[in-house]
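User: I'm preparing a small set of examples for a lab meeting where we compare how different chains pack in three dimensions. I only have the primary sequence for this one, and I'd like the structure in token form so I can line it up with the others. Please keep the answer compact; I'll paste it straight into my notes.
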Amino acid sequence: MKALVYTQPNEVQLLDRDFPAIEAGEVILKIDAVGICGSDMHAFHGHDPRRKPGLVLGHEFAGTIAESRDPNWKEGERVTGNPLITCGICAYCVQGRDNLCANRTMVGMTRPGAFAEYMSIPAKSLVAIPQDMPARIAAVTEPAATALHAINLSMRALMRPLPECSVFVIGGGAIGLLSALLLRAYGCRAVTVAETNEARRRSAAQHASCHTLDPLQDPPPADHYDLVIDAVGARATRVAALASVKPGGVMMHIGLQDWASEIDMRKLTLAEITLLGTYTYTMADLRATVAALHEGAFGTLAWLDERPLADGAQAFADLHTGKAASAKVLLIPVA
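Assistant: Understood. Below is the structure token output for the 335-residue chain.
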């Protein structure tokens, strides 16, 4: 089979790989669509020591079961899935907080991912999708669930209902744009997206019907927003997020571009800011996201950029150089 393989920093190649092996309790998926994530780009740049050259990346997928060794799943069923492979028995798993599983592994990190014609995965990670759901929509489940999980956590901390709040989203990439779209679906009337890429600003304004700004040319006002979502996670965006949240507000940190930086702890304390971190999603979030996508809560997703898997190297290059205007590039294997 063909697979897009991370061969060295700043290089992926379409190569022949063996058809995946299957063990008891697993399925083999024919991949119908797979998205390129920011963490895939992080690995592509050689910045993730957990993802080593020779690995097939990719964890945002929709597929069709080609072979099953689990009695609960049949060939021909269409699915997406949780790329986090969890143990099911640790304290976090039994609490329903499986995203924090102490023993988790991951598709596209500790085992071959979905940038391939076929991929094996434990059946317990599968999430059913409506059989008429387009693969291009179902493949967005994973990043959309990240946005849903983060916003739901934020709403628990806000002092007023979300529709009454002003929200500032930093970053117009996939997580930022999906967050803006879901905020609008939740009834939030005042959403602003900060993005330095002009094409992505236009896309956010068009598809999420929100205000946009270039933070390099138009710095956001200080102490202004009830909720600030940092979907980038760089030092500069963390500083901007904390500066722009109003006293008593909530700062939600999603992005992981930089590993560490200082923030204004004095403001955090004196202004009684709630600072939240979030990691991925739970299985419940993924199922809720499939339903939300199918019902149109995230819009038509007409902004998605779809390309053949064979053009994957060019897609990575375009994302690397900033030439990809879309917040999400999907690769479509043709097996």
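A couple of notes for your slides: Residues 147-277 form a domain with the Rossmann fold fold (CATH 3.40.50.720). Residues 96 and 279 are 14 Å apart (CA to CA).

User: Perfect, thanks.
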